[in-house]
Write a structure and sequence with these properties.
The chain is an alpha/beta fold. The chain has three domains: 2-302 and 622-629, Alpha-Beta Barrel (7-stranded beta/alpha barrel), CATH 3.20.110; 306-411; 440-572, no CATH class. Helix content is 29%, strand content 20%. The chain has 15 helices and 27 strands. Strands 2, 3, 4, 10, 11, 12 and 27 form a seven-stranded mixed β-sheet that branches. A five-stranded antiparallel β-sheet has the order 15-16-25-22-21. Strand 6 (158-159), helix 5 (168-173) and strand 7 (181-185) form a beta-alpha-beta unit. It is globular and about 75 Å long. The two termini are 37 Å apart.
Length: 633
């Protein structure tokens, strides 16, 4: 992997005067970040776009994205050698460029090597990485480095991620992998602590700097404005995207308008700069430490933060969030276990992790997934599950075992090692669990440890959302942030957005002083929706079928270190049984549903013709915007 520092900003010989502050001698920087997602229409658009002569399969829609929306940006930059831009893309897109669009890759490499394009990438697939343990993102970062090195592309030290995901765990992990600057979406800053944009750069420890993306600001010496911070697919297509099928094409007139806007800025003396170039010049100008920030996304007000991807229903009604998420957790548990089997097949393991990361793509559960996108997540997760078991098939045979029990904490592998444990004794409920939607029951039992109780939740069949609600004293958001294994306690008064959905990747949440809840993520994995107004934390599933539902939780009566210990043992380092051969991962997923369609063909629940687009066009066109798009507001 080549992580290179950004080149100095070029001024292009233009006057230093600028039209932002007449008469001033400020340096003016104009920044752009084009966020590309080759999985924007994950699996294609079958079931939505059925037009004669239009190819709606996954590869064809990917190729359309590169030809119609990516290549024109390269052409614009080639015509303006003094301009710099940030292009964010997952490593999976780099693989597609290498395999099917080598000329585009060559052009991109030349622009990146010259410093015009700053290539931003923090994940292999556009995963909902906030929802899973650190090992998954670690594999993603390692694979990203390999892909960029194989394509001979320089990787910048700037981080922006799919859905604008952001959290302190991400900031903590960045330096180890050569990253130094994180882009915090202004919407999340506003939701997290009420930021008004007046402070737009921060420090996080000694090695990481943060810039609030989309928030223009000025000091006595320089000003920063944002030309574009949005989906890169929209930049050259008059704000259209792949959900519009044949209408998703390059628009020269709209592109010319964007180009003219930038040219006018440069003519007025501004530097059309990369984020890294600006931060190299001014990233150390601030001594302000970043305030506490919860795990979040770039439009938290519109999505309930993480709720949209972890229990919220999209406009098509095709979502099966918990089925996708739980399936992915089961797959990643087995991959993590198979890695510890000494003679496991390395090639199958590598392919299994690749499938797992594709299955974790955020578009399989939100914003508004099509049935084919839901199937994409389920099918890739199921493939990862099967590859994990296949990777240890020879190891099982050599040991004469029907399964291998792998302790992810101790790394001990035991053939046929686990003995079935009978259920605990009935126990008295330490907290009251209620069901605001469907009727349900909570069955409490002992676990063999005096300070830990188990509760099995059953929700009856019904049309209302499946909701499990715990009490909360409203004092602290205390949980283990994504990509970490350490408890973080943030006073509730410091967080502006309410209610707010947090991903809780390791399951743990504070209920009150000395009382903690933990969801068992391989049985139920929804956002924890905190409400200060109601003094509750609830796990709500608006998606999936009307079938009955079950889920498992633990309640720990102890301090934060004890709750952390139990959560890690349950959801990060459990004992995993690898069957030889594997069972069917999808047979007992939440809601009792089978896997989606089994492929890219889609199914029958979603819309079936292009005429249905009129209902959702406005929602889809701007579905991820942060409100900074080429001067359009």
């Amino acid at each position: 992997m080549r992580i290179i520092p950004p080149l100095p900003v070029r001024n292009g010989g233009h006057s230093n005067s600028n039209n932002l502050t007449p008469g001033a001698t400020l340096e003016a920087y104009v920044l752009s970040l084009l966020h590309f997602n080759i999985q924007y229409c994950a699996g294609g658009t079958a079931g939505l776009i059925e037009v004669a002569g239009y190819a709606n399969d996954d590869a064809s829609v990917q190729d359309q994205t590169i030809i119609e929306s990516f290549d024109p940006i390269l052409t614009m930059l080639e015509a303006h050698p003094t301009w710099q831009m940030d292009i964010e893309l997952q490593a999976y897109m780099v693989e597609i460029l290498k395999d099917r669009h080598p000329e585009s890759l060559t052009r991109l490499r030349a622009l990146a090597d010259s410093g015009q394009v700053e290539l931003v990438s923090f994940h292999y697939s556009d995963q909902l990485f906030l929802a899973y343990p650190w090992r998954d993102q670690q594999k993603s970062l390692e694979l990203t480095a390999e892909v960029f090195a194989d394509a001979d592309l320089p990787l910048s030290n700037v981080v922006f991620t799919q859905e604008g995901q952001f959290g302190e765990g991400m900031l903590q992990r960045m330096p180890e992998y050569g990253y130094a600057t994180a882009v915090l979406p202004h919407n999340l800053a506003e939701a997290a602590w009420g930021s008004n944009g007046s402070q737009a750069t921060y420090r996080y420890g000694d090695d990481v700097r943060v810039i609030v993306g989309g928030s223009g600001f000025a000091t006595e010496d320089y000003s920063v404005s944002w030309h574009f911070l949005n989906d890169g697919e929209l930049y050259a297509t008059n704000d259209l995207n792949c959900y519009l099928g044949p209408a998703f094409v390059y628009d020269p007139e709209d592109m010319a308008q964007r180009e003219a806007e930038l040219q006018a800025q440069e003519d007025a003396g501004a530097k059309i700069a990369s984020i890294g170039s600006f931060m190299s010049a001014h990233g150390n100008d601030t001594d302000t430490e970043l305030p506490s920030v919860v795990d979040g996304t770039w439009q938290p007000d519109d999505t309930g933060n993480l709720l949209r991807w972890m229990g919220g229903m999209g406009i098509w009604g095709a979502d099966k969030d918990e089925q996708v998420l739980v399936g992915n957790v089961r797959a990643r548990h087995r991959l993590a276990a198979a890695e510890l089997v000494e003679d496991a097949n390395a090639d199958l393991l590598a392919e299994g992790w690749r499938e797992a990361l594709l299955g974790q793509v955020s578009d399989a559960t939100g914003w508004n997934p099509l049935e084919v996108e839901v199937s994409y997540g389920i099918d890739h997760g199921a493939a990862a599950y099967e590859l994990a078991a296949a990777s240890v098939a020879d190891a099982c045979a050599e040991r004469g075992a029907d399964w291998l029990s792998v302790d992810l904490a101790t790394h001990v592998v035991t053939p046929n090692g686990r003995v079935a444990v009978s259920g605990g004794d009935p126990a008295t409920a330490p907290v009251a669990i209620v069901f605001p939607g469907r009727t349900g029951t909570a069955t409490w039992t002992t676990t063999g440890e005096a300070d830990v109780l188990a509760v099995s939740v059953h929700l009856d069949a019904g049309e209302d959302p499946a909701i499990v609600q715990f009490p909360w004293d409203g004092i602290e958001y205390a949980t283990i942030p994504a990509l970490t294994e350490t408890m973080r306690e943030i006073p509730a008064a410091e967080v502006t957005l309410d209610p707010i959905g947090l991903p809780l990747p390791l399951g743990v949440f504070r209920i009150s002083d000395g009382v903690w809840g933990i969801k068992k993520t391989d049985t139920t994995h929804l956002a924890g929706v905190y409400s200060k107004a109601d003094s509750t934390i609830q796990f709500q599933d608006e998606t999936g079928s009307a079938d009955a539902r079950t889920g498992e939780y633990l309640v720990v009566l102890g301090d934060a270190p004890r709750a952390t210990e139990v959560a890690l043992a349950l959801n990060a380092y459990p004992v995993v049984d690898l069957q030889c051969p594997p069972g069917d991962m999808t047979a007992e997923l939440p809601c009792g549903c089978a896997a989606g369609s089994g492929g890219a063909g889609g199914g029958g629940a979603g819309p079936s013709a292009i005429a249905t687009l009129a209902v959702a066009t406005l929602a889809l066109l701007r579905r991820r915007t942060v409100g900074v798009a080429g001067g359009r507001g």
